[in-house]
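Researcher: We're teaching a course module on how sequence relates to structure. For the next exercise, students receive a sequence and then see the predicted structure as tokens, so they can try to spot secondary structure elements on their own. Here is the exercise chain.
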Amino acid sequence: MYLAAIFGLVFRSFDEAVIRLAAIAISGLAFGNIVGLLSGYARSSAWLVFSAFRIGTAFTSTSLGRRVAYVLIGKFGRTTLRLGYVAAVTDLAISPATPSNTARTGGIGYPIFQSIAVALDSKPGPTARRVGAMVALMSFVTTFAIGFSWWNMIGIW
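Model: And here is the predicted structure for the students to work with:
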């Protein structure tokens, strides 16, 4: 069932929601444990990641990410190093409200910094090394540096 759901999501034979619901329904009928199957949806961390990625989709579809990118480029975009510092400061500012690295980076930070790369004509392919690769790498490094230092400050580790 898991592999069938993965293949369905990769090949996009149907919408994602249809594939997920079909996988849940068929698994529930086949294994007879609906309560155990749906118990993962009761965890707050799953909903945090889901909500952050929905916010990221809204950033992209409403062009808010592009507008924020233009503001950041206008204020701090004199050098690519400064854009890297913007990635670090943005992650630091969002980290107390979104403690999940996945939710913070994938749902909120990625749409903004992808928009910065696209605005500076750095897309996957031959132009990827202009700005996009540096901003993506800086965002990746700061995510883990800030995430782990944040958890160390509050004493989780």
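Model: If you want an answer key for the exercise: Residues 105 and 140 are 8 Å apart (CA to CA). The first helix runs from residue 2 to 11.
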